[in-house]
Amino acid sequence: MFNTAISSFQCDFCRSTHCVEQKPAPKNVHIPAETFKIVKCTRCHLVSLYPIPTPQMIQEIYTQYSEKKDRLRVEQIRRDTVYPHKIKKLKQYAPGNRLLDIGAGLGTFVDLAKQEGFDPVGIELSTEQCHHAKTLYGLDLINEDVFHIKDELGQFDVIHLHHVLEHVPSPSQLLDLITTRIHKHGILLIEVPYQLTRIQDIIHYPATKKKYPTPCMDHIYFFSPQTLAQMVTAKGFHILEFNQHRPDTPPEDLSPVWYYLRQAFRKFTTALWLPSGSFIELYCQQ
Ligand SMILES: [Zn+2]
After folding, report:
1. Which residues keep their CB under 5 angstroms from ion ligand 1?
2. What is the CATH topology of the domain spanning 76-285?
3. CA of 59 to the centre of ligand 1 (A)
4. pTM for the model
5. Span from the CA of 247 to the centroid of ligand 1 (angstroms)
6. β strands within the chain, DSSP E
7. Fewer CB within 10 Å: C terminus or N terminus of the chain?
């Protein structure tokens, strides 16, 4: 079982040095097989790339990332259907209105949260995205690595990580940082893609006839609801809600019948913590 070729593996979560390579390589994740493998920790089952990309590689990936053609289209879908739903839930759960959006991107979530009465701060590593946020919404995002966030910003009632945790070299370290930045009873909202499930190949992709959009290497971790939940609970959070969601209205390329059948199936499987969605969403409380 133990793959001896993977000599310097250490799990980001449980620190085990034992893993197995995931074979065959999943067809929906395009990684250069000569450089990377996908491995699973044998102790805690966290799945990641091996080796973890170097900071230089990560920088190269993000230079291409912001040039993705469908970036604005995806952002519009998030603005119209994904984010309003999250903000409504956060208003119910949050003990206050100070909100930190880590990896704020184009600033859309920050803009909507502000309109809904939150006092939001967005932090974004990409200078280019910060410029876009200024142009689109007049927002001044903090153009900085989150690990350099200044102490005077204090603590927050809500911390939001939208498709961020799967991109960072150490999710465990980022969650440790978050625990120092969140108020007692504060809400952490995480969404990550749910990849590498057979059900995704069977249900989602044939239904939409789409290829999986991940180009290569920008996702370092491949969470399941279980591996994500065990990580946040180990950092002192308890889980308020787990969802596997898609937008609330049928996408244009999917028949309504198929869409509503899929929604029903998703509700049933989510109740049992079984895979059926393309995204994992967790609302957690400190
Ligand atoms: Zn592990």
Report:
1. 11, 13-14, 16, 41, 43-44, 46
2. Rossmann fold (3.40.50)
3. 26
4. 0.85
5. 32
6. 19-21, 37-41, 47-50, 98-102, 119-124, 142-143, 156-162, 182-193, 221-222, 238-243, 279-285
7. N
